[in-house]
Protein backbone atom coordinates (compact mmCIF):
# COMPACT_ATOMS: atom_id res chain seq x y z
CA UNK A 1 0.00 0.00 0.00
CA UNK A 2 1.39 3.34 -1.01
CA UNK A 3 0.73 6.11 1.51
CA UNK A 4 0.16 8.56 -1.34
CA UNK A 5 -2.65 6.34 -2.65
CA UNK A 6 -4.57 6.04 0.61
CA UNK A 7 -4.74 8.25 3.63
CA UNK A 8 -3.45 6.16 6.50
CA UNK A 9 -3.92 7.01 10.13
CA UNK A 10 -1.66 4.92 12.34
CA UNK A 11 -3.20 4.93 15.79
CA UNK A 12 -1.43 2.08 17.57
CA UNK A 13 -0.72 4.28 20.59
CA UNK A 14 -4.16 5.86 20.94
CA UNK A 15 -5.99 5.60 24.24
CA UNK A 16 -8.89 3.15 24.59
CA UNK A 17 -11.90 5.29 25.40
CA UNK A 18 -14.27 3.80 22.79
CA UNK A 19 -17.09 1.44 23.60
CA UNK A 20 -15.34 -1.42 21.75
CA UNK A 21 -12.51 -1.56 24.26
CA UNK A 22 -11.06 -4.95 23.35
CA UNK A 23 -10.22 -4.33 19.76
CA UNK A 24 -7.64 -5.32 17.21
CA UNK A 25 -8.18 -2.37 14.85
CA UNK A 26 -5.07 -0.19 14.71
CA UNK A 27 -5.76 1.78 11.53
CA UNK A 28 -8.68 3.49 9.89
CA UNK A 29 -8.04 4.30 6.24
CA UNK A 30 -10.00 6.53 3.86
CA UNK A 31 -9.79 5.92 0.12
CA UNK A 32 -11.33 7.14 -3.07
CA UNK A 33 -13.10 4.62 -5.29
CA UNK A 34 -10.05 4.47 -7.55
CA UNK A 35 -7.66 3.79 -4.68
CA UNK A 36 -10.04 1.26 -3.13
CA UNK A 37 -9.65 -0.80 -6.31
CA UNK A 38 -5.86 -0.75 -5.82
CA UNK A 39 -5.98 -1.31 -2.05
CA UNK A 40 -4.00 -4.27 -0.70
CA UNK A 41 -3.55 -5.16 2.93
CA UNK A 42 -1.27 -7.80 4.45
CA UNK A 43 -3.27 -8.01 7.70
CA UNK A 44 -6.97 -8.79 8.30
CA UNK A 45 -9.11 -5.87 7.16
CA UNK A 46 -12.75 -4.89 6.87
CA UNK A 47 -14.25 -2.54 4.31
CA UNK A 48 -17.13 -0.09 4.34
CA UNK A 49 -17.95 0.56 0.69
CA UNK A 50 -20.06 3.65 -0.06
CA UNK A 51 -21.46 4.40 -3.50
CA UNK A 52 -24.19 6.69 -4.76
CA UNK A 53 -27.51 5.12 -5.61
CA UNK A 54 -27.23 3.32 -8.95
CA UNK A 55 -23.41 3.44 -9.15
CA UNK A 56 -21.37 0.28 -9.60
CA UNK A 57 -19.16 -0.90 -6.79
CA UNK A 58 -15.40 -1.00 -7.27
CA UNK A 59 -13.71 -4.36 -7.68
CA UNK A 60 -11.60 -4.77 -4.57
CA UNK A 61 -9.20 -7.38 -3.35
CA UNK A 62 -10.62 -10.08 -1.13
CA UNK A 63 -7.20 -11.10 0.18
CA UNK A 64 -7.19 -10.86 3.99
CA UNK A 65 -10.59 -9.11 3.93
CA UNK A 66 -12.74 -10.38 6.79
CA UNK A 67 -15.96 -8.53 5.94
CA UNK A 68 -17.57 -6.01 3.63
CA UNK A 69 -20.43 -3.59 4.32
CA UNK A 70 -21.98 -2.16 1.16
CA UNK A 71 -23.97 1.06 1.52
CA UNK A 72 -25.67 3.20 -1.12
CA UNK A 73 -26.45 6.84 -0.33
CA UNK A 74 -25.70 10.14 -2.00
CA UNK A 75 -23.43 12.90 -0.79
CA UNK A 76 -26.29 15.19 0.23
CA UNK A 77 -27.35 16.70 3.54
CA UNK A 78 -31.10 17.15 2.93
CA UNK A 79 -33.85 15.47 0.96
CA UNK A 80 -33.39 15.60 -2.80
CA UNK A 81 -35.81 14.11 -5.35
CA UNK A 82 -33.06 12.25 -7.18
CA UNK A 83 -30.88 11.24 -4.25
CA UNK A 84 -30.85 8.90 -1.31
CA UNK A 85 -30.18 10.53 2.03
CA UNK A 86 -28.02 8.85 4.70
CA UNK A 87 -30.38 7.40 7.32
CA UNK A 88 -30.36 6.39 10.96
CA UNK A 89 -30.59 2.80 9.71
CA UNK A 90 -27.34 3.31 7.77
CA UNK A 91 -25.71 4.66 10.93
CA UNK A 92 -26.85 1.60 12.88
CA UNK A 93 -25.55 -0.71 10.13
CA UNK A 94 -22.13 0.94 10.27
CA UNK A 95 -21.81 0.68 14.04
CA UNK A 96 -23.10 -2.91 14.04
CA UNK A 97 -20.50 -3.74 11.38
CA UNK A 98 -17.71 -2.21 13.47
CA UNK A 99 -18.89 -4.10 16.55
CA UNK A 100 -18.96 -7.38 14.62
CA UNK A 101 -15.49 -6.90 13.15
CA UNK A 102 -13.45 -4.88 15.65
CA UNK A 103 -11.84 -8.02 17.07
CA UNK A 104 -11.26 -9.70 13.71
CA UNK A 105 -9.80 -6.87 11.62
CA UNK A 106 -6.67 -4.81 12.19
CA UNK A 107 -7.60 -2.26 9.51
CA UNK A 108 -10.91 -0.69 8.58
CA UNK A 109 -10.90 0.85 5.10
CA UNK A 110 -13.73 3.22 4.20
CA UNK A 111 -14.21 4.42 0.64
CA UNK A 112 -16.57 6.59 -1.33
CA UNK A 113 -16.22 8.12 -4.79
CA UNK A 114 -13.70 10.85 -3.94
CA UNK A 115 -12.60 9.82 -0.45
CA UNK A 116 -13.40 13.27 0.95
CA UNK A 117 -16.92 13.67 2.35
CA UNK A 118 -18.98 10.54 3.06
CA UNK A 119 -16.01 8.30 3.80
CA UNK A 120 -14.29 10.81 6.08
CA UNK A 121 -17.48 11.25 8.13
CA UNK A 122 -17.83 7.48 8.49
CA UNK A 123 -14.12 7.08 9.28
CA UNK A 124 -14.33 9.73 12.02
CA UNK A 125 -17.22 7.88 13.68
CA UNK A 126 -15.51 4.49 13.29
CA UNK A 127 -12.35 5.88 14.88
CA UNK A 128 -14.35 7.49 17.70
CA UNK A 129 -16.28 4.27 18.36
CA UNK A 130 -12.99 2.41 18.72
CA UNK A 131 -11.43 4.97 21.04
CA UNK A 132 -9.13 6.23 18.31
CA UNK A 133 -8.47 9.80 17.24
CA UNK A 134 -11.27 11.03 14.95
CA UNK A 135 -9.68 14.45 14.47
CA UNK A 136 -7.60 13.59 11.37
CA UNK A 137 -10.81 12.87 9.44
CA UNK A 138 -12.53 16.13 10.39
CA UNK A 139 -10.42 18.69 8.54
CA UNK A 140 -7.45 19.24 6.28
CA UNK A 141 -8.07 17.46 2.99
CA UNK A 142 -11.41 16.17 4.27
CA UNK A 143 -14.82 17.80 4.24
CA UNK A 144 -17.03 15.35 6.19
CA UNK A 145 -20.67 15.18 5.20
CA UNK A 146 -22.37 16.83 8.18
CA UNK A 147 -25.54 14.74 8.02
CA UNK A 148 -23.56 11.50 8.04
CA UNK A 149 -21.39 12.75 10.87
CA UNK A 150 -24.27 14.01 13.03
CA UNK A 151 -26.37 10.85 12.67
CA UNK A 152 -23.37 8.67 13.53
CA UNK A 153 -22.46 10.88 16.54
CA UNK A 154 -26.08 10.68 17.74
CA UNK A 155 -26.09 6.89 17.38
CA UNK A 156 -22.77 6.63 19.23
CA UNK A 157 -24.15 8.77 22.07
CA UNK A 158 -27.09 6.35 22.41
CA UNK A 159 -24.77 3.36 22.68
CA UNK A 160 -22.56 4.80 25.40
From TrEMBL:
Signal sequence range: none
Gene3D superfamilies: Protein tyrosine phosphatase superfamily
InterPro entries in UniProt: Prot-tyrosine_phosphatase-like, Tyr_Pase_AS, Tyr_Pase_dom
Chain ranges of the Tyrosine specific protein phosphatases domain: 92-160
Residue ranges of coiled coil: none
Protein name as catalogued: Tyrosine specific protein phosphatases domain-containing protein
Species the sequence originates in: Aeoliella straminimaris
Lineage of origin: Bacteria, Pseudomonadati, Planctomycetota, Planctomycetia, Pirellulales
Amino acid sequence: MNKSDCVVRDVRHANYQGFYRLREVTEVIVCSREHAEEFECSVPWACISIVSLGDERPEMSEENRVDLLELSFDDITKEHPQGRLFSDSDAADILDFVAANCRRARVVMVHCEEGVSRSSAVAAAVAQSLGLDAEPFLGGDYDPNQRVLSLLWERLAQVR
